[in-house]
Design brief:
- With 81 residues, the protein is mainly α.
- The protein has one domain (10-80).
- It has helices spanning 10-22, 27-53, 71-74.
Length: 81
């Protein structure tokens, strides 16, 4: 464990003390848990992004001679009118 000193505005410090008390924990423990959750969330995001970027790109069309559908074809709403 490492001790760290933080500076809070008085209203933030009061809210933190109340919140920690409601959860039957110390301010130090509550802040530590909050920071750990943030760290794990960022690590999870980074891992997911690396996994996504590791996938090789693939062609959208199997045959390059075929054309993409036009905007009008994609958004044709005649059947809904």
């Amino acid at each position: 464990m490492k001790n760290v000193t933080i500076t809070l505005d008085e209203d933030v410090a009061q809210w933190t003390r109340v919140h920690a008390a409601k959860h039957s924990t110390s301010v130090s423990r509550w802040v530590g848990e909050m920071l750990r959750e943030r760290m794990l969330a960022e690590e999870g995001y980074r891992a997911a992004m690396e996994q996504f970027l590791a996938i090789k790109p693939r062609r959208l069309r199997a045959d390059p001679a075929t054309r993409y559908p036009s905007r009008e074809e994609l958004h044709d709403r005649a059947g809904l009118r």
